[in-house]
Specification:
- This protein is α/β, with parallel strands linked by helices and about 550 residues long.
- It is built from 17 helices and 25 strands.
- The strands form six sheets. The chain has an eight-stranded parallel β-sheet with strand order 12-11-10-9-6-5-4-13. Strands 14-19-20-25-22-23 form a six-stranded antiparallel β-sheet.
- α7 runs parallel beside α12 and α15 packs parallel to α16 (about 390-410).
- The longest helix is centred in the middle third of the chain and has 26 residues, at about 260-285.
- The termini are far apart.
Length: about 550
């Protein structure tokens, strides 16, 4: 295999990574029923993941004690940043030693990687770009405030910025292909990180001002016209309030206020991200996504990162960045259920790269809900290495997901699985009424045990569970803090009972190891299945019908 001369001093480590394995197809997204799954080396994979802190992956020494602990937490995937400033400190000269260390150490611990490209933007700002970009404002202009003052955000309007970012990202992807296309340690890529304009709604530099006075691109107009009936409500309302015009300036089509200016910002960020994604896929075609920092209610664009792939701007991003495989929400707000359902769409596979900090009490229940209810590709709380010595409830929940992974993957998209958790609202009140859902030939009602008051606390926040149908009357019920009752659906006897309910676990080979046969007080004399608060577990249940 021919190695690029740009690998510089990393050739030896790269050769070690390359040796001895046959080439594999790159990871890819594959439909199963209504779900989309990630396939790695031809097999579906559920990403039981966690994202590292922003600076952790920059040092192999810092990370050395964490890899085993992350594996022991039952993670199978780590989300790790790679910074432009580290891999291209001098223009055109690449140093991939930090990337090689990540791949080497993840591989040594049987972990996969999702690499987060911290290129032109990270959390809106442009602090991870190399010094030769930061210092050349003439070539790489900054976004500007209305008074002309620059901010530490590169302008999305500058062709030179896109070209430089494309070259670096394509070089990274070519390197990953050279060292990893045999083993697929790297399974997905995130393009930039939480793109959005601050502290104003849009860039007011000369390039941006000229573009804003110009016409809305026909590609966006065509998308809105073709998808009129399925546009998100906010976008549809904004467009229709201005007469649903099919041409005109940005102000003509979307109005003269902040809302229209934010659409302009979103379009140009999406076009930049699309161009970057295309350059990366040309070098190594694997799944690539963008993440999003969400907006707080009542805030104006610019008070939150304006123009990112936010819920009200999804259509603009779908029109402007078709090369991106999906948009992934970073969710730090209590109303997880409402937010995540907005990103579960037929044209948008669900993946949660950041879901609160790893020690937050909502995280375990949210993981079960996203994966079991919405067929998520994977789930990852932030700063995962901060809890790997004392993983607590998250470690216990991840152990259950690890055991259930084959059954989850077999059921996704086929109507044989669902998940349940109390719904928290933005103000942290809890909606804990029982939830009823049909799975197979039974209707299950799930209530949440021992919730005494409707507020978000460590006790109320992490209840949750998953039900997976494995046979005509066989189910796996897992989680904690839930009580499950059941009734038959369809022709036949009208009552349902428990044939058997075993607690237990799946061993490392996927074989069921039964524990107690539960009956009597443990099933309320055959009336329900209960998973007690604070005790994550699995029960293997067979139901039956009677008159």
């Amino acid at each position: 295999m021919r190695l690029s001369a740009t690998l510089g001093g990393t050739i030896a480590s790269s050769l070690a990574l390359i040796a001895g394995v046959a080439q594999a197809a790159p990871p890819q997204l594959v439909r199963q029923g209504t779900a989309t799954q990630l396939h790695v080396q031809g097999k579906p994979m559920l990403l039981i993941a966690g994202e590292l802190g922003n600076s952790s992956a920059s040092s192999a020494t810092y990370m050395a004690p964490h890899w085993k602990r992350l594996k022991d937490m039952h993670l199978n995937t780590v989300l790790a940043p790679v910074a432009w400033e580290l891999i291209e400190p001098v223009e055109g000269k690449y140093d991939f030693s930090s990337v090689d260390a990540l791949i080497r150490d993840a591989r040594a611990h049987d972990l996969k990687l999702v690499i987060l490209w911290f290129g032109a933007w990270k959390n809106s700002m442009s602090t991870y770009v190399p010094a030769w970009v930061k210092r050349d404002q003439a070539r790489f202009p900054r976004a500007a405030l209305p008074n002309g003052q620059g901010v530490e955000i590169l302008s999305a309007m500058a062709p030179a910025t896109l070209e430089a970012d494309q070259k670096a990202y394509a070089a990274l992807m070519a390197h990953i292909k050279a060292v990893d296309d045999k083993q697929n340690t790297v399974v997905m890529m995130q393009v930039e990180n939480e793109i959005g304009m601050l502290p104003v709604v849009r860039d007011y530099g000369p390039l941006a001002d000229a573009a804003f006075r110009g016409s809305v691109p026909p590609e966006l107009m065509a998308y809105l016209t073709q998808h009129h009936d399925t546009l998100v409500p906010q976008m549809k309302q904004l467009w229709e309030e201005q007469g649903a015009k099919t041409s005109g300036t940005w102000a003509d089509v979307f109005g003269p206020g902040h809302a229209g200016e934010e659409v302009f910002t979103a379009w140009h960020y999406a076009r930049f991200a699309d161009g970057l994604t295309r350059a990366g896929k040309a070098a190594y075609d694997m799944p690539m996504y963008v993440n999003v920092a969400l907006n707080r209610p009542g805030r104006l664009p610019g008070e939150y990162p304006s123009g990112g792939p936010l819920p009200h701007l999804i259509d603009v991003w779908k029109a402007g960045a078709p090369a991106i495989d999906f948009i992934a929400p970073d969710i730090y707000f209590p109303n997880f259920v409402d937010i995540v359902n907005g990103y579960k769409r037929p044209d948008n596979p669900l993946f949660i790269p950041e879901a609160n900090n790893a020690d937050h009490p909502q995280v375990p229940g949210n993981a079960f809900y996203a994966i079991g209810k919405l067929d998520a590709i994977g789930f990852g709380p932030f700063s995962i290495e901060s809890v790997d010595e004392k993983p607590g409830q998250l470690g216990e929940a991840y152990a259950i997901l690890d055991q259930l992974q084959p059954h989850i993957l077999a059921a996704q998209g086929l109507g044989r699985m669902s998940a349940f958790r109390p719904k928290a609202l933005y103000d942290e009140t809890i909606v804990y009424e029982p939830v009823t859902e049909k799975i197979g030939n039974y209707r299950f009602t799930v209530s949440y045990a021992d919730i005494q008051r409707p507020v978000l606390t460590p006790e109320t926040g992490n209840a949750g569970g998953i039900i997976i149908q494995t046979g005509p009357e066989e189910y796996l019920i897992a989680g904690q803090g839930i009580t499950v009752t059941f009734a038959p659906v369809g022709p036949g006897p009208s009552l349902a009972g428990i044939d058997s309910a075993y607690e237990g676990h799946f061993d490392a080979q996927g074989r069921w190891v039964a524990g107690r046969l539960l009956n009597g007080d443990q099933t309320h004399q055959g009336r329900h299945i209960r998973l007690f608060p604070g005790q994550w577990g699995i029960q293997k249940v067979r139901l039956y019908r009677y008159q």
